[in-house]
Amino acid sequence: MLHKPTQKRIYFEGATYFITCTTHNWVEYFKEPIFCDLFVEILKLTKKIKGFDLYAFVVLLDHFHIMFCPHKAENLPKVMQFIKRNLSRNINFVLGYEPEEAIYKSLLRLKEEYKIYKDLIEQHYET
Hints:
The chain is of the alpha+beta class. Helix content is 49%, strand content 17%. The protein has a three-stranded antiparallel sheet, with helices on one face.
């Protein structure tokens, strides 16, 4: 079996990037407002910590788009890693899963009825 070489990427200082990220198996996580709100808050936190100019973003049912310019070209992958890591961890927290359980037992990925999930969302909006 041949080994595939590591993909090389080139980043440009001062460039604006348009990035699209999809959910695993295109599950519609963002159908629920709590996860959209979570995305926006994580985006604000990332902007503050990692440093970039945000020009636009949109959150759709199973993916999001971001258009931004990192203050340093080498920060582009760090920005995306921070957003994706924190968003997935927080979604799993809201769903009540430990990190290692979430990979295998996500109710949304299995497309089962979301009773636990709906209860958590209702509790969030009641407070």
